[in-house]
Amino acid sequence: MSLPKRVVLVGPMGAGKSTIGRMLAKELGYRFLDSDRIIEERCGANIPWIFDVEGEDGFRARETAMLDELSREDNTVLATGGGAYLNDETRALMREHAITVWLNADLETLWKRVQKRDTRPLLQRDDAKSVLTNLLAERTPIYSQADLVVRSKDGPHTNTVNAILKALKTWKPE
Length: 174
Fold this sequence. Notes:
- Helix 1 packs across helix 7.
- Helix content is 53%, strand content 13%.
- The protein is an alpha/beta fold.
- It contains 7 helices and 5 strands.
- A 5-stranded parallel sheet has the order 2-3-1-4-5, with helices on both faces.
- It has helices at 17-28, 35-43, 47-70, 88-97, 107-114, 128-143, 157-170; strands spanning 6-10, 31-34, 76-79, 99-104, 148-151.
- The longest helix is centred in the middle third of the chain and has 24 residues, at 47-70.
């Protein structure tokens, strides 16, 4: 059985999309792409600045255009931003051109991970854990539309990478 040429990782902030994506790409012998980093490189500005200046709608428009391009790249693992999969158009593009994998992590794992960095615009508030809780509740039904669902648990990321590899090897398109 052949593996898909394009794998897109989706899920909330803190699910491990970038870290796990790098490891998965290495295992597959693919290139790793991080849509947020590429947006920052092309804009010459970081995500929080883009959010401040252009608002979330401006950022999402950039993100959709970028994901349309990146999801067509062969032999790649693409890590997306936490909100990327929420947009109907973006979700359809990703599912049309790649296999989507939801890294499904529980709230406590996400909370532990997101506290390690202060670069998440949606959490720059005093009630950040409540925001994360609400985002997870709102977004879970959409993330669950991904082609594959793999648990991203606290612990070695190699466990999640191995679970993705196993799921990819047994995946059959609808």
